[in-house]
């Protein structure tokens, strides 16, 4: 599944001129692209991901807004949805942003489309990549539930995600791996399994971080999960402390909650 608008346009949900939550310890101009190849039942951007919120915008218009904000941000960050579905137009945008603003470039992806990532990395340097690792890659049935996929599809997807993570680790200076601790879907033990799998990949990146994130039932979350309570702050913190014992010392360990923001514990 790829969505390719004309080379001079992107299908987007909107943007935020200054964000403090998308790149650790940095300020970003954040752009949301529409559509996703996953159907996570807890997604806070579900309307955007499913294409209900979308508008076709010329790349030049986006560049103009980023140019106005460039003195106040460190990165130009693209998220979604799944941005790599529009990888050709995305490369065009990145190149223009780099040329006209000089900002560092950032991408948030589920890493399930390694061929799209390869295309992006072969055309432009992405300084920071955040990869959302939904569930243990060794448990396709659980990954399917968390990502809203059929198990047979998830069996193929987890291998593609693993490939995407390895590819990314060879093409960026700052890799941020993230997992959302979703009530009734993932347990701290599942997060520990994810951490062990990632640690065993022996990723070689100048800077690498793993972030345990809090689930919050925002307005955009589908009905099934909107009525659930947010993950307790203390549980998120305790889970991050558990995975700190799994990862090697070169990996930064963080947790992210609405109460504390981004907190580094190692």
TrEMBL record:
<dbReference type="Pfam" id="PF04055">
    <property type="entry name" value="Radical_SAM"/>
</dbReference>
<protein>
    <recommendedName>
        <fullName>Radical SAM core domain-containing protein</fullName>
    </recommendedName>
</protein>
<keyword id="KW-0479">Metal-binding</keyword>
<keyword id="KW-0408">Iron</keyword>
<keyword id="KW-0004">4Fe-4S</keyword>
<feature type="domain" description="Radical SAM core">
    <location>
        <begin position="19"/>
        <end position="256"/>
    </location>
</feature>
<dbReference type="GO" id="GO:0003824">
    <property type="term" value="F:catalytic activity"/>
</dbReference>
<dbReference type="GO" id="GO:0051539">
    <property type="term" value="F:4 iron, 4 sulfur cluster binding"/>
</dbReference>
<keyword id="KW-0949">S-adenosyl-L-methionine</keyword>
<dbReference type="InterPro" id="IPR007197">
    <property type="entry name" value="rSAM"/>
</dbReference>
<keyword id="KW-0411">Iron-sulfur</keyword>
<dbReference type="InterPro" id="IPR013785">
    <property type="entry name" value="Aldolase_TIM"/>
</dbReference>
<dbReference type="GO" id="GO:0046872">
    <property type="term" value="F:metal ion binding"/>
</dbReference>
<dbReference type="InterPro" id="IPR034457">
    <property type="entry name" value="Organic_radical-activating"/>
</dbReference>
<dbReference type="InterPro" id="IPR012840">
    <property type="entry name" value="NrdG2"/>
</dbReference>
<dbReference type="InterPro" id="IPR058240">
    <property type="entry name" value="rSAM_sf"/>
</dbReference>
